[in-house]
UniProtKB/TrEMBL annotation:
InterPro entries referenced in this protein's UniProt entry, alphabetically: Ferrochelatase (IPR001015), Ferrochelatase_AS (IPR019772), Ferrochelatase_C (IPR033644), Ferrochelatase_N (IPR033659)
Protein name: Ferrochelatase
Reaction(s) the record says it catalyses: heme b + 2 H(+) = protoporphyrin IX + Fe(2+)
Gene that this sequence comes from: FeCh
Enzyme Commission (EC) number: 4.98.1.1
Function: Catalyzes the ferrous insertion into protoporphyrin IX.
Membrane topology, as annotated: Peripheral membrane protein
Database matches in HAMAP family: Ferrochelatase
This protein's record includes keyword Transferase: no
Chief subcellular location: mitochondrion
Pathway membership: Porphyrin-containing compound metabolism; protoheme biosynthesis; protoheme from protoporphyrin-IX: step 1/1
């Protein structure tokens, strides 16, 4: 199809179009490529003129055909990305004729994306805030692909014969993980929270920094849609002047943040770097005072649930996703950055309570960072400590490990069996106003004072042997035009990954 030749729509994985009615395939491809060509007119004065242009009127005439084709795709249970895109485009160009599209198809075609796209076009974003995170499956049928992507990511995990073993483990794990997502409502809430945080963040930035407004957030997930590559594509299409790449992991790990940054480096391997955009990077922010403040406020909300006479002795148990000991020995900074967030939170909290940092969510048989959260919950009642609060400290929104592992497995099952008297779980930062203020302050200070790229980011782990990591850091120096001395420690042998 000729619309696959248009720049945005040239994803390699797109399957061939096979069941479209003749006139749809022949006529609409032309309309489609014209619509793509006119995308940046949406929201401008010429948009209305454009809407009455012949090719847009043709699109209106084809609405019924699009409906029929989309319906067939729906019935065959293989909704097609290119048709969703086409529907979005037609909606954008003939917004007042939305009613012509069937309601079912409108939902499929992701009206929300369409609306934000139209809105963003009309406010012509000047500054992009690219929010990097791992993401989570929004529906249970995405779990298999999600696990496959995690288990084949060599930044996340290094397995022998990974290209075979990774998919095998992912497949074996899928049913069990799907069950867990079903128990928390059918999917991960990471997208919902990230999108809300992004909207509120940009609103705050528009007020704080009118010179760089309008700010627009772009969500770049590592393992599910919207992918990091899609965020970059969209941002470039919007013609932004500045892009702040903002890791949503406050603490840096080569497995999480590092993997997202390497994905950006990979994306630009076969593309020219858009040097008309001024790029900069926020790779970590573990001790920001407002981040510590929001964790402290989340803890106070739960401390209030304990009887006054025991409140000061409740154990505050900070819990973070564990890391393989191999990664710790390589020099990954995540464990000490998590500990730094814990210390800053305890200072902000200013209470006499005892606290500990424990680790959860180990995957596979190899040794990971301990003590494990469930073991600690079991051990403390035997030592006379029977009241505790679990505080997820290494992720900024609710996810499967708070909603399932902590709330269902640990607070209900493990704690009950272990003889815990009262256990509470502090909420994640989510949309807490202090958290939005924290994000806005992190970004605003970064935009005003830099650095565009930190020395900490450029410095590799003492025992890193990943050629991929070396190349990625060299790329970011170029992308951010950061003229630091090379501190990325060349690998002797780039093949020794
Ligand atoms: C924020 C810290 C995290 C680190 C460090 C981390 C490392 C890490 N994770 C895996 C494997 C899996 N992680 C999975 C889910 C998952 N991981 C994190 C965070 C970190 N992971 C979060 C927030 C989530 C949940 C996302 C959600 O959907 O809500 C999964 C999938 C779930 C499962 O199978 O249990 C896997 C697999 C490895 C190997 C690793 C190594 C450094
Ligand atoms: Fe994980």
């Amino acid at each position: 199809m000729c619309w696959r030749a248009a720049p945005k729509y040239s994803r390699a994985a797109r399957p061939a179009l096979c069941v479209a009615p003749e006139h749809v395939t022949n006529g609409l491809c032309d309309v489609f490529s014209k619509l793509v060509g006119c995308l940046n007119l949406v929201g401008t004065e010429s948009h209305m003129e454009n809407v009455s242009a012949p090719h847009c009127r043709v699109a209106v005439n084809y609405v019924e055909d699009i409906n029929q084709f989309g319906q067939k795709q729906l019935d065959s249970k293989q909704p097609r990305e290119d048709y969703k895109e086409l529907l979005e485009l037609v909606q954008l160009f003939i917004a007042n004729r939305n009613a012509l599209l069937s309601p079912k198809l409108l939902i499929l075609s992701n009206i929300k994306t369409c609306k934000t796209q139209a809105k963003s076009q009309s406010k012509s974003a000047k500054t992009a805030i690219v929010m990097l995170n791992m993401g989570g499956p929004q529906k249970v049928d995405q779990v298999g692909d999600y696990l496959h992507r995690i288990m084949t990511d060599r930044d996340m995990i290094q397995l022998p014969v990974q290209s075979r073993l990774g998919p095998w483990i992912a497949k074996r794990r899928t049913e069990e993980v799907q069950k867990k997502y079903m128990e928390i409502g059918g999917g991960s809430p990471i997208y919902k929270w990230t999108d809300l945080q992004g909207t509120l963040l940009c609103k705050a930035l528009d007020e704080k920094l009118p010179k760089s407004a309008p700010h627009k957030h772009y969500i770049g997930f590592r393992y599910v849609h919207p992918f990091t590559e899609e965020a970059l594509e969209e941002m470039e299409r919007d013609g932004v002047e500045r892009a702040v790449i903002f890791s949503q992991y406050p603490q840096y790990s080569c497995a999480t943040s590092g993997s997202s940054f390497n994905t950006i480096a990979d994306y630009y391997k076969n593309r020219s770097i858009p040097f008309n955009i001024q790029f900069s990077v926020i790779d970590r922010w573990p001790t920001h005072p407002l981040l510590a403040q929001v964790f402290a406020e989340r803890i106070k909300e739960k401390l209030a649930n304990f009887a006054e006479h025991i409140r000061n002795s409740v154990l505050i148990m900070f819990t973070a996703h564990s890391l393989p000991l191999k990664a710790v020995s390589r020099g990954d900074t995540y464990p000490h950055e998590v500990a730094a967030t814990v210390a800053a939170t305890m200072t902000a909290l200013n209470v006499p309570n005892p606290h500990r940092l424990v680790w959860q969510s180990k995957v596979g048989p190899l040794p990971w960072l301990e003590p494990y959260t469930d073991d600690a919950i079991k051990a403390y009642p035997k030592k006379g400590v029977k009241n505790m609060i679990l505080v997820p400290i290494a992720f900024v929104n609710e996810h499967i490990e708070t909603l399932h592992e902590l709330d269902i497995e640990y607070c209900q099952d493990v704690a009950k069996k272990a003889g815990v008297q009262q256990i509470e779980r502090a909420a994640a930062p989510n949309d807490h106003p202090t958290f939005i203020a924290a994000m806005a302050d992190v970004v605003a200070k970064h935009m005003e004072h830099g650095p565009r790229l930190g020395q900490q980011f450029l410095t590799r782990c003492p025992h890193c042997t990943s050629g991929r990591c070396y190349q990625s850091k060299e790329f970011f120096k170029k992308l951010c035009r950061a003229e630091h001395e090379s501190v990325t420690h060349k690998v002797q042998d780039a093949s020794s990954v």
